[in-house]
Specification:
Layout: H1 3-30, H2 33-59, H3 74-103, H4 112-142, H5 147-153, H6 157-186, H7 190-219, H8 225-236, E1 241-253, E2 256-265, H9 271-288, E3 294-301
Parallel strand pairs: 2-3
Antiparallel strand pairs: 1-2
Helix pairs in contact: 1-2, 1-4, 1-6, 2-3, 2-6, 2-7, 3-7, 4-6, 6-7, 8-9
Length: about 300
């Protein structure tokens, strides 16, 4: 995990832990289902940051006989676990609490002011400590790519998870506040339950997107289109290379790529010249794509 992503995870962990405590206190005093859903959401997010930190630590382990390509993919596993926890610990609980509130409505309007203060403080923590830094890092990494393309092609699960979690957290706070205000204004506590269910649906959608993205990286997703093009261009720039017959890539970690190429070299090269050409290809590829940490070249003779 890059230093910037690690910082984002730590900031999100601090923010979510503080916010979870405040939300549980507010939910206990007011009996609000939406507030309780938000409390469980923040608690799940805090655990998720722990998962990411664990994945970051394990992914740095050196390659071994049992794991010859290292354990970088374990970061994707823990990111996938984030999606599971977000769904079970956030979405399911929020929907259950909302349904229970609709089935057994109770007026807790006396806690409105305190709830809104807690939500306001939580929003400030979420936006300024976690969300805005995540957005800045996301925009820095995506460059000129569209937001959706960056999400689809991004290989750093920490950045993706933190950005999605923080976005859901900010939206969840707005939904919870709206439900509390509507319940108080209409004297109908059902709005509180509806807000809780809406938060649950939001978290389920986020969990589903994260699970799909992490699944692709876990099962062996190729490097991005730009990276593959850079590898091919660097290879073809080397004197003695005629063409790249086959280029296979697999993302091993956010900054580690497995590359396997079948390359046709000019006919008539001696063994020493062929070995020199292969070495020059490796150097050229690493110069353009430093992430190509596992590079295998199968030389082919020209016609």
């Amino acid at each position: 995990m890059a230093t910037g992503s690690r910082t984002l995870v730590l900031l999100a962990l601090i923010a979510n832990a503080l916010i979870a405590v405040l939300k549980f206190i507010a939910a206990f005093l007011s009996g609000s289902s939406a507030m309780l859903a938000e409390a469980f959401h923040s608690m799940a997010d805090s655990g998720n940051q722990g998962f990411l930190l664990r994945g970051q630590a394990v992914s740095r382990y050196a390659a071994s006989a049992r794991h010859p390509f290292g354990r970088g993919k374990e970061l994707y596993f823990w990111a996938f676990m984030v999606a599971v926890v977000l769904f079970v610990g956030g979405a399911v609980v929020a929907v259950y609490e909302g349904i229970d509130k609709l089935s057994h409505p109770a007026d807790h309007s006396e806690g409105l002011a305190f709830n809104l203060i807690v939500l306001g403080v939580a929003a400030a923590f979420e936006i300024f400590i976690a969300f805005l830094p995540a957005v800045r890092e996301f925009n820095r990494q995506r460059g000129g790519r569209s937001v959706w393309r960056m999400i689809r092609e991004g290989k750093d699960p920490a950045l993706t998870v933190v950005l999605f979690e923080d976005s859901a957290a900010v939206l969840g706070l707005a939904i919870a506040a709206s439900g509390l205000i509507l319940a108080d204004a209409t004297a109908n506590p059902a709005w509180d339950g509806i807000a809780s269910i809406t938060i649950g649906v939001l978290l389920a959608a986020v969990a589903w997107i994260l699970a799909l993205e992490m699944k692709g990286l876990l099962v062996g997703e190729a490097a991005s289109r730009e990276t593959r093009s850079a590898i091919r261009a660097a290879t073809l720039s080397v004197r003695g290379v005629e063409q790249v017959d086959r280029l296979l890539t697999m993302q091993l970690a956010p900054h580690s790529i497995l590359v396997n190429m079948d390359i046709t070299f000019e006919d008539g090269l001696t063994q020493d010249e062929l070995e020199d050409a292969v070495a020059r290809v490796e150097a050229a590829v690493l110069d353009q794509v430093p992430e190509a940490t596992r590079l295998f070249i199968e030389p082919q003779s020209g016609p």
